[in-house]
Amino acid sequence: MTELASRLDDVAQRFDAAVDRANDEQALESVRVAYLGRNGEVTTVRRAIGTLAHNERPAAGKLINDAVAAMERRLQAAYEELESRSFDAELATSIDVTFPSIRRPAGSIHPVRRIIEESCAYFVRHGFAVVIGAEVEPDYYNFDALNIPNDHPAREGFDSFWISDTLLLRPHTSPMQIRTMQEHRPPIAIVAPGKCFRRDAVDARHLFQFHQVEGLLVAEGIHFAHLKGMLTGLCRELFGEQQNVRFRPSYFPFTEPSAEVDTTCPKCKGAGTLKSSPMGCNMCGGSGWIELGGAGMVHPNVLREVGYDPDRYSGWAFGFGVERLGLARYEVDDIRRFTKSDPGFLAQLS
Ligand code: PHE
Questions:
Q1: pTM, full prediction
Q2: Which of the residues 51, 75, 211, 329 has the least number of beta carbons within 10 Å of its own beta carbon?
Q3: CA 294 to ligand 1 centroid distance, Å
Q4: Same domain membership, residue 253 and residue 304
Q5: How much is the pLDDT for 95?
Q6: 213: left (phi > 0), else alpha (psi -120 to 50), else beta?
Q7: Domain range spanning residue 44?
Q8: From CA 324, how far away is CA 340, in angstroms rounded?
Q9: Taking a C-beta distance cutoff of 8 angstroms, is the pair 315, 298 a contact?
Q10: If you average pLDDT over residues 200-210, what whole number do you get?
């Protein structure tokens, strides 16, 4: 029994020394096999139990099992030590904490959204409410109620995507005029931003899907100067004091009188010609102006349609193209840029 104990002691000491010498996982594994493996040193000692007297065997078994448990703990600790040492080594060689961090490009608010938000904020500051409408509307709201009966040639100006005989993707945000006036009594003061759709050929100034901001003010004693004042103020807000704005007589079935609102062409800066195309600026067609949208005094027929008395109430309305506002504001030379998610372009405008 004492002989077995001293042999065990010897094995344990050599085991400890071997573990100390092992400096990688492979070496540790060889130590494990040599000492704790099926044909390892401990097994040899264990076999010697058979030479002991019967009454000594249980104590000898326990001695060996305790020694094995201690050796396994030692081995486990050595493995963990190795692992943390190799992690530290990896950190030291592959991670340079002074290296500059990777810059993740930050997104920005899209210019179309920004203009919608700023336009709405301008009107909200003046007491207007923001209303949002559907993008699919019956022809009644898009046309009939806006004084454009079925056979009216103005329908062709709104070349539309029809969904059925009576439903269409709205070609303008003006249906919101009708919906708001049908739901509320005057005074009315709203802005209605949103998407619009027209079967237009796409070019530097036209998209088939675009955004408008609609505005409507109806109360007693409203006249054209109120409209001019508010829209001039909006343009000042969006473009600054320098940018020119002009009101040009025009025609819409739902306003009388009507105007179109123009601002200085962002490409030729109002000159109408470019060095590159002396025949005429291809952005504004040589006029030096680009159109932002339409406006006018709400037609009496429209007021009647929603049950307002045109002798008592008057109002103005306008609808501006948001991408058009974007062209002028950011001096962009092609409206299609607003539809491409080019991060370089968007970052410049943010
Ligand atoms: N709805 C018209 C358009 O899209 C613009 C407009 C709105 C004109 C309101 C007058 C009044 O062309």
A1: 0.71
A2: 51
A3: 5
A4: yes
A5: 79
A6: beta
A7: 2-94
A8: 16
A9: yes
A10: 93
Residue 108 CA to ligand 1 centre (angstroms): 30
Residues 58 and 6 in one domain: yes
Q: Across the chain, what does the average pLDDT equal? A: 92
User: How far is Cα 147 from Cα 162, in angstroms, rounded to an integer?
Assistant: 19
Structure confidence by residue, pLDDT tens digits, 30-41: 999 999 999 999
Which of 234, 248, 252, 260 maximizes ligand 1 atoms within 8 Å of its Cβ, making it the mutation to test the pocket?
252
Q: Would you say residue 297 lies in a domain?
A: yes
**Residue 209: CB partners within 8 Å, gap ≥ 6?**
195, 196, 197, 339
Hey, what are 235's tokens?
């343009």
- The residue nearest atom 8 of ligand 1, judged by CA position, is 294
Q: Residues 133, 222: one domain?
A: yes
Residue 186 Cα to chain centre, angstroms:
37
What are the tokens at 7?
A: 């042999």
Identify the domain boundary among 94, 120, 135. 94
